[in-house]
Amino acid sequence: MIPTPDLSHLTEQDKLHVYDPAEDTFLFLDALEQDAEDLKGEKPLICLEIGSGSGCVSAFIGSILGSTNTLYLCTDINNRASDCTHRTGRHNKIPLDPITCDLARPLLKRLQRSVDIILFNPPYVPTESEEVLSAQLGRGISGSWAGGTNGMEVTNRFLETVEALLSERGKFYLVTLDGNDVPEIRERMFRAFRLQCQIVAQRRAGIENLHILQFSRVNR
Amino acid sequence: MVRLITHNLLACHVKGCTSNNFPLALKDVQIELQEAEFNPEFVTNILPRLEWSALADAARQVGDTSLPAEQPEMMDDDLLRNLHHVLLEIHIVEGAMVCPNCKHIYPISNGIPNMLLAEHEIG
Ligand SMILES: C[S@@+](CC[C@H](N)C(=O)[O-])C[C@H]1O[C@@H](n2cnc3c(N)ncnc32)[C@H](O)[C@@H]1O
Ligand SMILES: [Zn+2]
């Protein structure tokens, strides 16, 4: 059993503005724990989390992989989330390096085929397109869930760049729900980027059916 | 905190700014030193993913001259320790990073780099 990161330092104010870990987060932790031995075996050097929010997921994988073996880069569009991520790292003795930015944009040039683990629990809730636009511009709490058409508008922008970032044996984990059309995502990622996909965890949470997808290159 | 390992991986991403957009120059930076556990294997293995001259130069900009300008052929223990310090123990707390090409300024505040762009700057 790997303990869930201690988030007791987060304040009520933090929780008003930054995504508080929920069912999706915990399913993500379970999936990573299941894969713990495989992940460690690959000796990953760079782990990148997109939309780190509280920092819970990166702190957790940090306790699997060790605090000095891997660089943990964390991005979020919400500056307050970057601050929470930073503090969660310190509180759990895992150095997390936060960057406030859109997806992985400032890292794309330097991290070509260099990232061993990529993690993304995206804003996946289907909404009107206008809602995702204003949520992305507002950079606050609504940006943590508003996903636009099929809940995929933010995720799709990232899917275009993920293959370029993944190292030879790299793995990309993505949280999705039924409304995101998982079969379509799998087929598209295979067709366009030769990334194969496995569903590594699945759980029903209220009306949502959540999954964790894991992508890797074919022919390794 | 912006550690120099992170600085070595960030480039300007303003629309149309695609060459000479790395490394970002450090401006008016305040640094803090925080001890980190030395892991020689990590430092050795991460090197191929980093750019030496940008790193040595960034270190010099914050007053650390322990790295030679060119990457030496052989790594000894002293050099690995210097690298460990430069990469992982120097934290930029306040200041800014400036694109050498388009001069865009990315602020660092409370240890967090803000690399968000306005709508019209996005490619
Ligand atoms: C569902 S929350 C997940 C938070 C945390 N990783 C977790 O699992 O509890 C989605 C996160 O993505 C961030 N986000 C939304 N759009 C983003 C974008 N374009 N770039 C980076 N982060 C983004 C949100 O601010 C939010 O913190
Ligand atoms: Zn620029």
From TrEMBL, chain A:
GO molecular function: nucleic acid binding; protein methyltransferase activity; S-adenosylmethionine-dependent methyltransferase activity
Cellular compartments annotated: Nucleus
A GO CC term attached to the entry: eRF1 methyltransferase complex
Methyltransferase found in the keyword field: yes
Gene3D superfamilies hit by this protein: Vaccinia Virus protein VP39 (3.40.50.150)
One Pfam family recorded for the sequence: MTS
Gene Ontology biological process terms, A to Z: methylation
UniProt entry keywords in alphabetical sequence: Methyltransferase, Nucleus, S-adenosyl-L-methionine, Transferase
Domain (Methyltransferase small) ranges: 47-128
Domain of life, per lineage: Eukaryota
Major subcellular site: nucleus
Family: Belongs to the eukaryotic/archaeal PrmC-related family.
Protein's recorded name: Methyltransferase small domain-containing protein
Organism lineage string: Eukaryota, Fungi, Dikarya, Basidiomycota, Agaricomycotina
Automatic annotation (TrEMBL), chain B:
InterPro entries noted in UniProt: Trm112 (IPR039127), Trm112-like (IPR005651)
Any one GO molecular function term: protein heterodimerization activity
GO biological process, one term: rRNA (guanine-N7)-methylation
Pfam families tied to this protein: Trm112p
Entry superkingdom: Eukaryota
Record family assignment: Belongs to the TRM112 family.
Subunit structure: Interacts with TRM9.
Name of the protein described by the UniProt record: Trm112p-domain-containing protein
Native organism: Pisolithus tinctorius Marx 270
